[in-house]
Amino acid sequence: MSSESIIRDHETFRVILQGMSHPGKVYPLPGAPKTGIIDLLGCLMDNEVSFAVIGDKDMEAALARHTGSRPAVLEEADFVVVTGGACGQGLESCRRGSLEYPDTGATVVYLVEELCLRDEGISLSGPGIDGTIALQIKGLAPSEFRFLQKMNGEFPLGVDALFLDRNGCIACIPRSTRIGVN
Amino acid sequence: MLLHEWLKNEAGTEKRPGYPFGFMDEGAKKEIRRCILKAVAIPGYQVPYGSREMPIARGWGTGGIQITLSLIKPDDILKVIDQGCDGSVNAVNIKKFLAEVADVEVTNDTCAATIIQTRHRIPEEPMTGRQILVLQVPYPEALREVEPSEMETRRMHAEADYSRMWLYLYEDIVKYGEITISYRYPVTVNGRYITDPSPIPRWDVPRLHMADTLFLFGAGREKRIYAIPPHTEVVPLEFEDHTFRTEDFSGKACARCGATGTFLDEVVDNEKGGRSYFCSDTGYCDKRSTTCSR
Amino acid sequence: MGYVAVKGGNEAIERACQVFAHERMKGDSAPLGVDQVREQLYLAVDRVMGEGSLYAPELAALALKQSAGDTFEASFMLRAFRATRPRLGYSLAARTEKMRIIRRISSAFKDIPGGQILGPTSDYTLRLLDFDLLEDDEARRAAFKKRVFSHIPAGAEIPETFPRVIRILRREGLLEEDLGAGRKEEAVFDITRQSLTFPAPRSATLQALARSETGGMLALAYSSMRGYGNIHPTLGELRIGYVPLTIRHPETGEPYTIGEVKVTEAEVLARMQGNDGMPKFSLGYGLCFGQNELKAISMAILDRCIRAEKPSCPAEDQEFVLYHTDGIEAMGFCNHWKLPHYVDFLSDLDRLRKAQDVARAGKAREDGDAAA
């Protein structure tokens, strides 16, 4: 790996970390707007984790090739990539972890149209959020929030969601976040 | 032989051949990054990881170093302290290693730093949402005091079965009239996990509550990572009639800068037999001394 | 103000490192050759390779020289070096039946197929200091070698392979099922890459023990031998020799031998077990780099101990054994007590003073009540 790509991974991870510790806030990834899913996940995934892609076989091959990660069924995947704005009922098959090891719950990455902070957006509160924050996610089915709420209804079990939009920006909703509906 | 000399000799005359940016291999960093994200998503919960060996000994900060190396960027400004002091031998050693393998600028100024790695203290000056504090942890398990087995403490956390910890505190009060735990004072994070804040003094525990900054905890030897995100509830364990209290410095001030609201080191003055007090946070003390002297 | 002064900490560390290096150079003796350490202190080299978890005799010898003989420090250096090496691949499972034997004994039987081969061992030496070694020149060595090799019976041959003693027992249904065949693990656990959680799979416990510190393991195994626990071990077989390492050729996929490593292997037979109604002997297995018999035997005993159904003592407690026998972790933590702890201590002082205040107030009240 070249020095530049290693450093790029460090920079990408910093943005993801900032996003996960300040849920709801929108942050541009390095290289935005051209940053894609491979750049995002390249700093996290390798041959020790598994993944599943909903709705895009080519992306599955590309991710496997670039990261060395193993494609797996939804029920076993560490990382789940959702193209097409909704996982729906399928989300319930994702791993929520166990009480002894809640960290084994999956990370779900949604590819969406646009992320922005707007009053009309979904209201979020909890660790990392000062009071409440309203996040609007264009390109995500509104029903998806209900599925997330259900998945994350028994803390510490749950999944942690990451959103990547077409502008190369991300926002995060970890399982610790309370998702309210406006 | 110094660390960076050892690195140079091992690798030949180039600065860092054979060692990528950040010293560890990418697989190691990726695992740590995944664990950090889960730790942030589950505040106060200890995520197990396959801690790598570092050229610095276990027990001397390898957990903190691995976290720092997984997230540091060349444009970061790094501060490293031990017991609050930038010049402490261990802090200096770690700083040299990190600056060498990550090519970053270092500082003693809390406000100028973007990443602060610390052993046993939180800096006096409040940190912002753009900074990260990485704490070195010898004992990640708050319940170890009452239960030596890892399997059992994991079960206790899983079921939020903390009765034995409360009993331990109660017995302290019965015996001594006080909760005698000094550093490593157990806290409840986000209303769920009892967490060990690392051997910071009680003085620093309130700083964890609803802070602006992210706290990352790394235990290299014990192989655990945990986190307290910003704006998170962190409540020390206490009873209604025996509430949590910090150390008492009333009537004392720093002999160097005059501060009365900081954690003070007690130094026995051998010649006179008296005691002097100095700010443990030397960077802060330096700042105050410089402004005071103008 | 001592060594924690804001200025001067740097210089103090540099000087300390220099003084440390100088300690082994200040005498008149000729500089120690790494080849001398490797050849003439080969058992120390073997121990360091085992605890450093890296088969690299030259580097282990260098580490021993650099650390002035401190095996903990030397093993640590080797581990740290190992952590920076890229993982190129994995060998196929090595078969110790293919070992090029230099020593092989069994205590379970008086004689075994292939014979008892004592090999290079200090077991039967009288532990009397040999003052002749104070004058150890080339002529003396040459004379010794001549004497040793002058009476070898012509045509003495060693068999190509040595059947395992335990195979004999297994064939007769006297030994518990082959643990490798029965419960097959999906993939070999890698303790350097995955975090160890309990109960740990067997590949993880064996890996951890293989790199554990000899003294720590010996202490725990000794406790078991003396009676803490119920193992009553017999040494089924001890083998030392060179085992070939084979990988899949990266292009053809064919098995390809890349070299050999010297290992010590111990198989210990223990008291009965047997879950299918038929009592059998149980087996403990030990394997480590180089020639380190104490470690291999201790490892085999501990392997068996930590599989006890109901742990009744520390040596049978999987967590206790695995957490406390890693030399690098133990040494790092023991040494860390030398780091400044004055803030922690001050916090403790505060608590103690407060507790004393409370105690005094309580006593004053009592005295007051008594006087009234």
Q: Tell me, what's the shape of chain B?
A: globular
CATH third-level topology of chain A: Rossmann fold
The CATH H-level homologous superfamily of chain A = Bacterial phosphonate metabolism protein PhnH
**Oligomer, anyone?**
heterotrimer
Based on helices, strands and strand pairing, what is the structural class of chain A?
Answer: alpha/beta
Task: Describe the protein in words.
The complex is a heterotrimer of chains A (182), B (294) and C (372). Chain A is of the alpha/beta class and 182 residues long. Chain A has a single domain (3-172), classed as Bacterial phosphonate metabolism protein PhnH (Rossmann fold), CATH 3.40.50. Chain A has 4 helices and 10 strands; from the N terminus they run αβαβαβββββαβββ. Chain A has helices spanning 3-21, 37-42, 57-67, 143-151; strands at residues 27-28, 50-54, 70-71, 79-82, 107-111, 114-125, 132-138, 160-164, 169-173, 178-180. Chain A is globular and about 40 Å long. Chain B starts with a helix and ends with a helix. Chain B has a 7-stranded mixed beta sheet. Chain B has 7 helices and 12 strands. Residues 1-6 of chain C have low confidence and may be disordered. Chain C is globular, with a radius of gyration of 27 Å. Classes of the chains: A alpha/beta (182), B alpha/beta (294), C alpha+beta (372). Chains in contact: A-B, B-C. Chains A and B meet through helix 1 of A and helix 2, strand 1 and helix 5 of B.
Task: Write the SSE topology.
The complex is a heterotrimer of chains A (about 180), B (about 290) and C (about 375).
Chain A: H1 3-21, E1 27-28, H2 37-42, E2 50-54, H3 57-67, E3 70-71, E4 79-82, E5 107-111, E6 114-125, E7 132-138, H4 143-151, E8 160-164, E9 169-173, E10 178-180
Parallel strand pairs in A: 2-3, 2-4, 4-5, 5-8
Antiparallel strand pairs in A: 1-9, 6-7, 6-10, 8-9
Chain B: H1 3-11, H2 26-41, E1 47-48, H3 62-71, E2 77-82, H4 89-102, E3 105-106, E4 115-119, E5 132-136, H5 150-158, H6 163-176, E6 187-189, E7 193-195, E8 214-219, E9 224-228, E10 234-236, E11 264-268, E12 275-279, H7 282-293
Chain C: H1 9-23, H2 34-40, H3 42-52, H4 57-66, H5 71-83, E1 100-105, H6 138-149, H7 165-171, H8 179-182, H9 202-210, H10 214-226, E2 234-248, E3 255-273, E4 280-289, H11 293-305, H12 318-324, H13 327-336, H14 342-371
